[in-house]
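[stage:ingest] chain + small molecule (zinc ion)
[stage:ingest] validated
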Amino acid sequence: MTPSTLGTGSQPEPHRRHEILQRLQHERNTRLAQLRAMDADKPNAHGDLLTAQTTAIRVVLKEIDAAEERVDDGTYGVCRGCDVRIPIGRLEILPYVRYCVRCQQREL
Ligand SMILES: [Zn+2]
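[stage:predict] done
[stage:export] tokens:
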């Protein structure tokens, strides 16, 4: 038995993995910039609206963290609901999603 017989399992190919992590990092930077922009000009009159927006952004940031963990444990891009691979087109738009379209609709 030689090391070359060891498979890579369900891990994405290294270049793919790098691309995914870069995309997630980009999403995170975008959200963090939005949060900073909102902090910078906080209009007191829109306090509630602002809180709702920052809450939504923080939820996405958590999703991004979770997606990075899934890249590490090899479950990235697999639907949590039905174990089917999430189409790459969907992952390009929403790199942190954990459900396929069908399961997402069921969740809502
Ligand atoms: Zn699904």
